[in-house]
UniProtKB/TrEMBL annotation:
Pfam families in UniProt: SIR2_2 (PF13289)
Record keywords: Coiled coil
InterPro entries membership: DHS-like_NAD/FAD-binding_dom (IPR029035)
Protein name, per record: Uncharacterized protein
Top-level division of the source organism's lineage: Bacteria
Amino acid sequence: MAIKEKLKNDQNNLISKLLKLLSSRSIHFILGAGFNNNFLPLAKDLLNTIAKIKDTLNLKDDKKIDNIEEWINEQIQVHPNKRTDIETAFLEGLKEDLTLDNNETYKDILKQIKQIDNEKDKEEKTKQLEEINLFLKQFKKIVLKSSNGNGNNSYIKKVFFWTLNYDNLLQKLLVNNKMPHFVIDHENWNSNIIDFSFRNDQTKIILPSYFIYKIHGNKNKPIIPANTKFANILEDQQVFEAYIKMKTLLMDTHGKNLVFIIGYSGNDLHIEQIIGETISNNNQVIYVNYDEKEQGDFNSVEENNVLTIKTSQPLNFLTELFGLILEKLGDENGK
């Protein structure tokens, strides 16, 4: 309740501002591992592998590891001359610890990690699922009300989800919530579906297009660019095309994009550059960052067209925020 009450007290600022930003904009969500980290987590069975790699290659790193691919790339950045050694050690360690076939390749191993369940119990997974589902439900209501309740052509035209995760949870929830969408990955980056929109002829309600862009593919067809974050992305055509598409759509209109960044750690140098250029292009960017210090609360800092929110409950914060925006939209439309 603390988040909702604080938002109510602040609604003349944040909520009113967002109401203005929602019209005639494309909405973008950049979703990092913190949004839904149920793929490539560090399971208990992999701790021995990581420990062996550290010892074998003399890697001094005491930081908590919660994402294997991320950790590998960080080590490659710190030890660029050991890239092959790190990948080989990781591969051999997993073969031994997980009793895998000797003919498995580095990418084959990473694909098989999708079969390893994470350490979260079912109750935690269910809670996370409910939070994401409620977040989407509230956002859908905002889209419909802002798009069809204002009596003019000022409405949310497109919604983009840029996910760095491999799982298919997001598209499943969009289907469940009857949010028509397209999924774009390395197999159809150059598709021309971007101009599609939906309209219900009976209700005259405009249904904005939803797009899911899977930058790293999915768990069935993952893109595992072990050297992408810190080396020349031109070496991987699939990833290069993904970043170009992301940059193009975020920069296509000057100041006409509203960008929410959720659960993103900021350690992808190429995405950081794209976000920086998006800000320079006068688009509004809202970071929603996890901060365990803000238990049941939030703090915000605004500088130019960048708003940073720190909270221990990022999805709950957005759900409460969207709920209050809906109330405001209802008041303005006389509903």
